[in-house]
Amino acid sequence: MDGHTDSSWLGAPLEQLPTPALTLDLATLRGNAERMRERCRALGLRLRPHVKTHKTLEGAALATGGTRRGIVVSTLAEARFFAAGGFDDILYAFPVPRWRLAECSELAQRLQQFQVLVDSPQGLELLLQNPLPAGKRWLVWLKLDCGNGRAGIRPSDPEALALARAIAQGSPELVALVGVYAHCGNTYGCRDIPAIQAIARDTTAAVLEFVTALRQAGIACPQATIGSTPSCSHPVPEMSQLTEVHPGNYLFYDLQQTQLGSCRPEEVAIRVLTRVIGHYRHRGQLLLDCGWSGLSLHGRDQGPAGCAAIEGHPQLRPVSQLSVPLSQACATAAMHPVYFVHAAGKVVELWRPVRGW
Known about the structure:
The two termini are about 25 Å apart. The longest helix has 24 residues, at about 195-215. Strand 4, helix 4 (about 100-110) and strand 5 form a beta-alpha-beta unit. The protein is globular. The protein is an alpha/beta fold. It contains eleven helices and 14 strands.
């Protein structure tokens, strides 16, 4: 980077960094992590942070309060990376693909608690046909679709109860039912906090109703979890009847989250630094050294600021894809091989995210 190794930027003032550069404010990160832990403590819930936004050991250690236990990953590359970094109790939040089963098996044998999702009889059969070595069982969460419209079986579907029974009681020496898992990603389509809380309330009610039906049918279901950063940033009291939640973006937050009401602008920890490299008065535009490959185009049509806001200059708007803070931190972070974590205007840590699938 500009003739330097990454580590040579430790101690450097932010203004000296080569641009575009992804920066994270350490105090803001810590504040975001502590506030989410406190919300969960107040509700009596366990926090199982999702790591897909930052994909770093340092971020996950901060989010777990240093325990390195209880995280959610989106990819097996993440699972291997965090396992190698000393993390355990890892949930792979994706219905197990047949072609990745060998990797899941290796992780399940390596860790005390590597957990997977199932949302179909075919997914369960895949695990039963590929048992773990003696002394190990597949640890399974049943994925529910409570309105998000992605993976999962609807809790109102009669097959859902039958599938839960098959997981819990069909072959208990091979497979164990850990709990039920629902992601309320549909909160991202809301316009305000009351709408977000309504979805959180409905999702919680659907999950708890299903858990009650399981228990009435004699099916043990130890855990029940829902999650999304909007719903967990303004949780409803009913969520206290769950056992855990799994938000992820909250460590960074971003422009989209401020628009949703999840956070205040000062709680956004992530920025992309860029420099003005041209001024074109005849068309009233500035040229920056940061394009879509430094920011992503995610969120460009959401809100008046587009895909990013120019900090300190609300009158400016990116006309293609430029600047800070970001509309969607997950997509932007994926564009950068290193994050410059700063305090008092200087780089104090370098976080390197895992990549791949």
